[in-house]
Amino acid sequence: MPDTLAITIISIIVCTVLGAFIRGKLQDKCLKDFSGNTVNLEATTGKIVCGKLSVENTGLELVYTGKHKDEVGTSYILYKYEYPTIQALVRYHNELDEDGKKKRERELKRTYHPSFLKRLKRRIQNFFKTVKDSLMDVVNLLIGRVKAATPVGGLLTSQGKYTAQIKQELVGFVGTAFEPLLERHIGKKIILELAKGDKTFEYPGVLKDYTTEFIEIMDVDYRIKEDQITRKADLIVPRKYGVIRHLDE
Length: 249
Hints:
Helix 1 runs parallel beside helix 7 and helix 5 packs antiparallel against helix 7. The chain has eight helices and ten strands. It has a ten-stranded antiparallel beta sheet. The chain has helices spanning 4-25, 29-34, 98-111, 116-130, 132-149, 153-158, 160-174, 180-183, and strands spanning 38-43, 48-56, 59-63, 75-79, 86-92, 189-196, 199-210, 214-222, 231-238, 242-247. Keywords: Membrane, Transmembrane, Transmembrane helix. The chain crosses the membrane at residues 6-22.
């Protein structure tokens, strides 16, 4: 007879390691695009923080550099539950180093009117997002068959809590953000409508990506404050404040 205690311990370890790995990969795609770059965090309170961006699945950190080192401490941490206070994340082109500028130019070329292979890859990803519920049914069916037809079925039944946890982690890894109205305009010039307090501003740019929480726009003429000069920038804005209002081509 198999050692059920040992199997239980192994199940817990596998679920913990697998869950940690998957959660570590579940960083917001838009935020991840700005990771490692100098970014300005514009808060809804009017606060502005500038630093080198580092993103984790639990939040983000801006490490102060250069002229910003006189801020309190050496970095600014914003936890995920504080994301509703984000007005915009702004990546100004002239604040990137030379390597960053070259990488960003390549990124823009790949984004604007993407190639057939890039569009195909995205369609495949979107397919799996739209069939998430069906994937759960398939996983349940396969596990049910194994339980009924193999010697390890009884063990899987006894470890139901942990098999359920693995299923949730695996299906969650697929992601849920799919918006047909936005999807058709990926890689095209659009106009972003951004609410700031009681005012609304429009910004032409190229729609790069979106998630359940954010929209990422490239090649925007932007200024954080109205008395500042306009500079070329890429933006990440919360979907609660920013909407794609018009196609611009």
